[in-house]
Each structure stands twice: as C-alpha cells, then as structure tokens.
C-alpha cells in the first residue's frame, strides 16, 4: 500500500500562511526571527524502539515525520529489559518507549515507573479512543488507568506445516488430515524415497529448534487438544491451564518421540538452527517442515535446485473430535509507555493520535 500525504501538505501550507500572517504584525521582524518561530513549532521526542540493527537517522521517515507532523524524533535503539529498567530507574530524559512484553508493563505499573495516560488521551487522543476497543484498552490498563498506547496486530495465520506435494503425488498419497495419516506419510517418505535422494538422506520432517524449541507446531499440536504447543495456556472448562496439564500434551510429546525414535523426525533436531534447516530444505531432502510466511526464499531455493518440487501448507490436522484449529496473529502487538520522568505525555499522545487522523494521510490500493 502507498500513502499519499497531499492533504496534510495542504494543511501545513495553510498553517504556514497563518503563522506568517501573525508574524507580520511586527513590521521589523527579521528572517532569522521567523526561522526561530518556525523551529519553536517543532516538538522533540526522545523515543526508544527495539531494532538495534536499524539506523533511524538514515531513514527518510524521520524527516518526513518532522516535516509533516512537526515532531522531531530523537531515537534511541534497543529495548532489552536491562536497558529499559536502567532508563526508568535513572530518570533518564526519555519520552516514549515501545515494548511488546506485557509482563514488563505490569512490573512498571506496580513500581510507579510510568505515567497513567487517561487525562492526556481524553484531551488529545480522540482518534486513539475510536481506534481501539475497550478490550484492547484493558490490555494496557490497571485499576481503570491506561498506562500505554496500544498497537494491535494484523490477523493472519503466518506459520504451519508444509509438505512436499510432489512426493505425495509420486507415491499416490493424499495430503494427510490427521496425526496418524501424517505419521504414515512420513514413514512412506523415509522408506520409499520419492525424491530419489537416497533413503539414508531423506529427512521426513524437520523444524528449527531455535524458533520452535518449545514444540509450538501450529496446526499439528492443536490436533491433540492443546494450544499451539504444550507450554501454551488455553481455556479448559472455565480454567486457564497449560498443555502439560492436559492428557493431550503428553500424547503430543509421545507422538514427536515416536517420530524421532523411528527416524521420521530430523535426528539432528536439537542442533537445528534457521540456516541449516533452510539448507536442508533447499537441498531437496526434506519431506515436511514447519515454516512461516516469511520463508519464501527457502522455497525459491528448493525449486531452483529441484524444479519439480512443490511444497504446500497443510490444513490444520484433525483432532479426535474432528475439530481443526490453528493459532493466528491478532490482539496486542506492542505498546508505547511514557516514563514518569517525561514532561511530554501530551506530546506523545498527540503524536500517536496524528497517525490515525484521516486529514494526515490517505491510503490508496496499489
């Protein structure tokens, strides 16, 4: 999508004319005085964000925000817990911190390290108030006080199990729909070597232990009546329980152990990292893998090496009751807090509110 800022540019031109008109009341006002007045309209905000490998000083949006919204972002990068704790405890002059750990939010509220924002949002956050449901505000509130400006996630399924459809076709097998069918397919991959890579080289199923070390295997784990993995919490008969507390959690772990013991799950799984998993898939020896929507380059590399290869995402495997479930993104993505030491809570709220002002941008498809 592309953003066209023509409307805000027009408003800024009008604003400039109004400012210059007022300034002409003093006939002898110098050009330098006008420049000083213009500079006084710029609000400076010290903003801490989490991307250590990103240099905002070199990004065009920093100047764009200054030009269009009158806000000069003074960036500080990195939001690891120790760094944020030091900022908040030392009283360092920081105006806004972007975080995504709600446990930390609760700690900072309890310690009185951040400001409640209700008054500021009531005055300057009309767009913010309309943009988020009460449910979302509750996620960043305590005892009726709002302590952060939320950002919600897009809703999408971003990861799951992918399988070599061309191998299924060679063996005359259907796409598996249950854990047991998945097991039988992996067994056939290992024993019949449909890719012709050598039986000893076939890796029927693999995933990145770094990313999925807690066995959060979307679309597979849920077939055992648990969440995205055994460590995930779900609601069960009105109670919040861990997958480890449910019989399905034990069954899921037993299923993975069975795959591993019989050679159908990558024998190097504990040492798997993102890079070597991608290399295995690209080399054409993997039958199924847990991948995300951002792993398209891995599929491209596979097809470059094995032109006839085709990988497809499995639908959620069916549980014993026939249900199919997957986790998707959504809900609270991140949030912005204002340290107790900042004197610019109004300006932070105004800045966030401006991004939701329809007068500040238009969105075109394309």
Task: Explain what you see.
This protein has 366 residues and is of the alpha+beta class. It has 2 domains: 42-154 and 331-364, D-Maltodextrin-Binding Protein, domain 2 (3-Layer(aba) Sandwich), CATH 3.40.190.10; 159-313, 3-Layer(aba) Sandwich (D-Maltodextrin-Binding Protein, domain 2), CATH 3.40.190.10. It is built from 15 helices and 15 strands. The chain has helices at 6-23, 31-40, 60-69, 81-90, 102-111, 118-124, 126-131, 134-139, 165-171, 179-192, 209-212, 247-261, 274-283, 296-305, 345-354; strands at residues 2-4, 43-49, 71-77, 96-99, 141-142, 145-146, 149-152, 159-164, 203-206, 233-236, 239-242, 286-292, 311-313, 332-337, 362-364. The strands form 5 sheets. It has a 5-stranded mixed sheet. It has a 4-stranded mixed sheet with strand order 9-12-8-13. Helix 6 (118-124) crosses helix 15 (345-354) and helix 13 (274-283) packs parallel to helix 14 (296-305). The longest helix has 18 residues, at 6-23. The radius of gyration is 27 Å and the shape is elongated. Residues 1-39 have low confidence and may be disordered.
Q: Write the CATH fold name of the largest domain.
A: D-Maltodextrin-Binding Protein, domain 2
Distance between the termini: 6 Å
Class of secondary structure makeup: alpha+beta
Summed over residues and divided by their number, the pLDDT gives a mean of 84
What's the architecture of the largest domain in CATH terms? Answer: 3-Layer(aba) Sandwich
Helix content: 40-55%
The fraction of residues assigned to DSSP E strands is 15-25%
Side by side, the strands of the main sheet go: 3-2-4-14-7
Largest sheet: 5 strands, mixed
Kindly provide the radius of gyration, computed on alpha-carbon positions and rounded to a whole number of angstroms.
Answer: 27 Å
């Amino acid at each position: 999508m592309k953003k066209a800022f023509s409307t805000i540019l027009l408003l800024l031109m009008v604003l400039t004319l109004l400012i210059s008109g007022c300034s002409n009341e003093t006939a002898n006002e110098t050009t330098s005085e006008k420049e000083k007045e213009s500079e006084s309209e710029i609000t400076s905000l010290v903003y801490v964000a989490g991307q250590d490998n990103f240099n905002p000083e070199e990004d065009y949006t920093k100047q764009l925000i200054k030009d269009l919204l009158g806000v000069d972002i003074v960036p500080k990068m990195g939001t690891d817990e120790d760094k944020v704790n030091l900022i908040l405890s030392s009283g360092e002059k920081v105006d806004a911190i972007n975080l995504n750990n709600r446990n930390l939010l609760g700690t900072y509220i309890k310690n009185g390290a951040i400001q409640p924002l209700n008054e500021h949002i009531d005055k300057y956050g009309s767009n913010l108030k309309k943009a988020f449901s009460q449910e979302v505000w509750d996620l960043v509130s305590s005892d009726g006080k709002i302590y952060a400006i939320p950002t919600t996630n897009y809703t999408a399924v971003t990861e799951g199990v992918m399988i070599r459809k061309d191998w299924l076709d060679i063996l005359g097998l259907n796409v598996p729909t249950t854990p047991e069918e998945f097991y039988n397919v992996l067994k056939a991959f290992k024993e019949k070597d449909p890719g012709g890579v050598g039986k000893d080289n076939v890796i029927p199923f693999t995933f990145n232990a770094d990313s999925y070390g807690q066995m959060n295997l979307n679309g597979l784990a849920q077939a055992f009546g648990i969440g995205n993995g055994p460590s995930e919490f779900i609601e069960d008969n009105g109670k919040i329980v861990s997958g480890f507390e449910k019989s399905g959690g034990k069954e899921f772990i037993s299923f993975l152990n069975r795959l591993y013991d019989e050679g159908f799950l990558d024998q190097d799984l504990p040492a798997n990292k993102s890079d070597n998993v991608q290399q295995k898939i690209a080399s054409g020896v993997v039958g199924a893998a847990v991948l995300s929507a951002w792993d398209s380059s891995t599929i491209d590399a596979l097809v470059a090496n094995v032109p006839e290869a085709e990988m497809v995402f499995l639908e959620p495997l069916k549980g014993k009751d026939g249900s199919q479930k997957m986790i998707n993104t959504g809900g609270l993505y991140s949030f912005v807090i204002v340290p107790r030491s900042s004197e610019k809570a109004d300006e932070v709220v105004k800045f966030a509110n401006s991004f939701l002002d329809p007068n500040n941008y238009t969105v075109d498809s394309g």
